[in-house]
Amino acid sequence: MLSDWLLCSCYCGRIDGTVSHFMTGAGKSMVVYYRADGSLVHIAPEPVEKEEPLFTAICVGDASRVQELTMRLGTNLMLPSKPGWLAIHQAVWYGQEACLRVLLSAQPGMINKRTECGESALLVAVSKDQLQCVQVLLENGSDTDIPNYDKETPLYKACERSSAAMVAALLNHGAAVNTVCIWRCTALHEAACRNSAEICEMLLKAGAKHNLPNMYGITPLFTAAQSGQLAALRLLLKHGADINSQAADGATPLYEAAKNGHEEIVEFLLSQKADANKPGKTGLLPLHVAAQRGNYIIVSMLISATSKTRVHRAGISPLHLAAERNRDDILEALLEAGFDVNAQLSEERMRLYQDHRSTALYFSVFNNNIDAVRMLLAAGSDPNLDAFRPLMVAASQSCIQTVTLLVEHGADINASIPTHLTTFPAVYMFSMKYLPIFKYLLDHGGHAISCFNCVYGNRPHPPIKTMHQRRRTTNTHDRLLRLLPRGRLF
């Protein structure tokens, strides 16, 4: 027994310093008794409370025994076996229809009583998919709209279970269709999420509002697109749902379908004239997120539907996002479609990066993605647009292939960094530890004489004061440049 205790996956909570409870790896509840000094006294199985005869009879479906017990003097059917759990809840939990009828006959007043979680017997029956018990409760006048403490009604739960029969039964007994849960979701949201077209049709015919948003501004149609449920999506559009409805964050059903990789949904939405040029609050379009996620098929579908003018307004190109995530196939498709290879990040988006990068080429060089670098340069990418040049990044990574490609396509070897002016080419500072690159740069037009010039001669250099130092910038090249002299290199 002690070995079981030592090897178990246990949960202990000391009570008055004398008793602890734990569970063995086999799931057996145990209790441990301690002396006042903390030493072990005894380990034994947890005492099991004996269930009341009525609840035991219900559990096994002994309707005759239940009948006998309900008629016994002193039996109180409104007395729970544990907090809020009445005999009627026990009956529907186990699907004991005959026992349920006996209980309702003996005490009709218990029909709408709730458990400690706020669940009525009807809600428990629906949650356990006990259709016959649901029908018995409805026949006996159970309130169809009593929610649990999350404000989920029996109808909402029936949609969650995708049970058309239970939904039909509840609607036939007057269940309210537009009641919302604590997240302000309706039964239609739940049915759409589970692609239950039959249930959606029932709810809509019963008066469900198809454009009612939840607390995040999400409509049932948006939910269907988000979760890739085509049948529900078709039905909701047929009933007039807004194909371009926007959630609280500005996302559209098309954006969400593209983000989640639902190719069939994207194709259908585009065929129904969904707006591919409606940005969210971040300014991104569906094409942006598809490029970022790397879904070639969705990108291919969205390219022709997307306005390049709208892309420009976003301040970021899909090329940037494809390059950042090394989506080479997406990069190629976008270049073939004529997206501007030299598009630069807006000032606002540039500030999100410590190095203030601006081009797709920079992203690919930074990622050491030689194939993407070659592709971008072949498409006409200018290697001299970024303040901190891609050539400097390639040199700092000791990547001779990328350095060679950039120089062959016109990278300025002698460029300086605006925030850290030097008399010699700035790229030399990043190639000192890799002499083949250093020599290559010198052989291909790098200034050599400037490395020996210094306005201070052999005198001590004054400290360099830059805007970046005042702001205590922590990006890599700034830290390196602070350590280097302003003048000559050697």
UniProtKB/TrEMBL annotation:
It comes from the Eukaryota. Pfam families: Ank, Ank_2. ANK repeats lie at residues 117-149, 150-182, 186-215, 216-248, 249-281, 282-314, 314-346, 356-388, 386-418. The keyword Nucleus does not apply. Gene3D superfamilies: Ankyrin repeat-containing domain. InterPro entries: Ankyrin_rpt, Ankyrin_rpt-contain_sf, Dendritic_Spine_Reg/Scaffold. Keywords: ANK repeat, Repeat. PANTHER family: ANKYRIN REPEAT DOMAIN 29, ROLLING PEBBLES, ISOFORM B. This is Ankyrin repeat and SOCS box protein 2-like. It comes from Cottoperca gobio (Frogmouth).
